[in-house]
Amino acid sequence: MRKLTYYVACSLDGFIGDPHGDASSMYAFMDEEYAAWMNAEFPETVPTAFREASGLTGVPNKRFDTVIQGMGSYRLGLEAGMPSPYAHLREIVATRSLTESPDPNVELFAGDLAARVRALKAEDGDLGIWLCGGGQVAGQLVDEVDELVIKSYPQVYGSGMPLFGAGFAVHDYALQDLRSFGNGVVVRTYTRKR
Question: Which regions of the chain are under pLDDT 70?
């Protein structure tokens, strides 16, 4: 069975963006060492428009063939002129506000997102599903997340958009990998204890 991985950046205190979802302060930590690691380990998470500049032209997807994101995350690419920000993946946008897809590669979905993810997991294939964001979508899918890859940036926000926008419930994970970088970023990989 395929797995759902929440691959996400956050502050030390667990916020993926400010109260409006802006996480641009984290861009300052994108140095050569860290970018090289991300490009090698998660090449498909680089938006299509930046793949050539990142030396990823023709590089096959390594971990994922599908990306799921909420309208807030998708809007960032859309407003930057990228109606299909991850054209090298199957794109699913969870939204009730957008009713017509601006690109044939982008599937808009307004139904039971957890059921849709379970159907995606049941498909044949070696690659998984990337939950790109945001916190509200992650909250809807918290019971379906099989793996967390959390890129913690050395910043404290104090408040903002939480990693999971959901009610209180305990979900246990086991640490599988830990990687630190000279810029202060720490990447932790966890698998769900079921």
Answer: none
